[in-house]
Amino acid sequence: MDPKTHPYDALTPDVVLDALAAIGLYGDGRLTALNSFENRVYQVHLDEPVEGRDAVVVKFYRPGRWTTVQIQEEHEFALELAAAEVPMVAPLRLHGQTLHHHGGFDFAVSPRRGGRRPELDDWDVLEWTGRFLARLHSVGQLRPFSHRPTLSSATFAHEPRDWLMQHHAVAPEVQGAWAEALGEALALIERHPVLRGEASPDGGIATLRLHGDCHPGNILWTPEGQPGAGPHFVDLDDARQGPAVQDLWMLLSGDRRQQTQQLGALLDGYEQFRPFDRRELALIEPLRTLRLVHYSAWVARRWDDPAFPINFPWFGTRDYWQGQVDMLVEQIEAMQEDPLVG
After folding, report:
1. Domain boundaries, given as residue ranges, for the chain
2. What would the pLDDT profile of 162-220 be if each residue is shown by its tens digit?
3. Among 244, 233, 250, 252, which residue's Cα sits nearest to residue 210?
4. What is the number of helices (H) and of strands (E) in the chain?
5. Catalytic site residues?
6. Checking CA distances to 107, which of 59, 181, 300, 335 falls within 20 to 30 Å?
7. pLDDT single digits (tens) 276-292
8. Side-chain half-sphere of 261: how many Cα atoms within 13 Å?
């Protein structure tokens, strides 16, 4: 393949429709690209309804990111959640399988589900979302992932840091300051055994199967009075093993007072279905710090994908990396403060 091309360059509308036709679904030519940077996701209208559906969503996985068994583990988790009546958009099983292959791509087909972003300044919405997360975690704790990675300082900081340094991705003017701040931050993060990826001794913080990327964009909300009212999850692409609080903290925003109130509402709902270990609240700022490092490496690794320079034009500049240094310094201070109280 020409090094100037990207695998997704080959994913033309005809390839999308041919992939669906290969599993017995025939599009009528109407394709809508849905918002996704990591994968390519399309809403496809069908020529003839299948099981009452006139449209489906097809997801083409980014080549090389996950192995086949890791994708299948994602699908198994989604199907477990759906079987437990946790509102989760799970892949359809077609011809006995959920994962399909065409033209060098792995892909899956899901039912189309509507909804809007949840209004997380509404305490009732937060409490309902907390109940929803507890139900997801009740299924997630039944057994661990065997093939998907664990959220740890190794996977979210050490490996991304090494990749960024080896590929000279950090602006040279601030590389030393960034590495120094990250080293100081890691010393604080790794005070927590669960974030070192170590097996917890008796009484340690437990890990379970997580959504992994539980930000508001991955929760769709159906208003009350409509079928399926309330939240439902989409996109388990980042599902991994980790502490439960990982699926809570990304729903918090604002200053410390606001985050405390939001966390209280989430936990009011959560603990109606499942106990929450309050020791995990001390992990919120370390997890936020790990995500900063992981995010920078995520964008840098995908710079050959034309969608990334277009949508992240500010990435990689000196100002960007100076901003990362400043945020690491802020996180070092935050990690030394008392945890939020839920």
Report:
1. 7-111, 123-335
2. 999 999 999 999 999 999 999 999 999 999 999 998 866 567 899 999 999 998 888 88
3. 244
4. 11, 9
5. 213, 235
6. 300
7. 999 999 999 999 999 99
8. 11
